Amino acid sequence: MAVDNRTPVTIIGLGSMGTALAEAYIEAGHPTTVWNRTAAKASPLVAKGAVHQEGIADAVAASPLVIACLTTYDDTVEALKPAESVLKDRALVTLNSGSPAGARETAEWALSHGARFLDGAIMNVPSAVGAEDTLLYYGGDRGVFETSESTLKVMGGDTVHLGEETDLAALYEMAVGGTLLPALVGFFQGAAVVQARGLDAATLVRFTVKWFEMINSVLPVFADEIDRGDYSQPASSVNLFLAGAAHDAELGKEANIDVEWHAPFHDLLRRAVAAGHGDHSISALTEVLKKPQG
Quick one: pLDDT at residue 1? Predict the structure, then answer.
């Protein structure tokens, strides 16, 4: 008779992402315990095979691997406080938003109660959980990562350990995530512009995707310029971007849309020119973003 050695997992927090995680583990055949402050959210998962524990200490005690998927680090610590006595020797994986400082503080709290700590970030949407190309990265206890890697990959096949420092996942999540809102607002502005001409926002999608593919292709070039600190061979200069800034106001007037969100970017371009970067690569804006030390 075959022995099922799939690791039992507890999921803390059943929002859209936590629910997707629990569903992935149930589908993969892992004994799955779930807990949520609003217990009713567990019912659909119980129908699929999960075990619901009303007490969080019982939920934590049920599995050697505990995955907390709450909104913030503060929410995670607050929810787990009643389970402090059963955290010892358990692997605690946190998958919430927050700053590197929040990750370090949460790690300190978890370690003080004997838990083994791994902080992570899911770089995709709930519907992508479990896909081979879904990226999750982690910082913290390498032993937890190596022992649990196959179990962690249930959540996404592109699973990376960044290093032993407990705040690395939060650091990279915020570093990478900084591109999201500007990119989305740019698309939303485009949608408003074409709708002002009686066109559908859907007509933008194909062309915007190609534009993002172009951006993707030049990121390695920009990263190399930044790492070398050499901006002297620009494909696109700061001055070129600044010259185009005037067109934003013209477009706003013609389409009757608010383009004031561009103002900080235009200011950054002007500051770069004032700092002597006008003829340098647009990646030189990195230097302007850095504040003086001390």
Answer: 29
Whether 27 and 169 share a structural domain: yes
The secondary structure element, H or E, covering residue 9 is: strand 9-12
Domain around 235: 179-289
> Would residue 271 count as lying in a domain?
yes
Last residue of a domain, one of 149, 175, 201: 175
CA dihedral sign, ordered 150, 156, 162, 164: negative
Q: Is residue 2 part of a domain?
A: no
Number of C-beta neighbours around residue 235 at 10 A? 12
Residue recorded with tokens 């990959």: 153
- Label residue 2 by pLDDT band (50, 70, 90): very low
| DSSP-assigned letter for residue 235 | S
Q: What is the pLDDT of residues 217-273, one digit of tens each?
A: 999 999 999 999 999 999 999 999 999 998 999 999 999 999 999 999 999 999 999
What letter represents residue 90's amino acid? R
Joined tokens for residue 239: 């001055």
For residue 69, being part of any structural domain is answered with yes
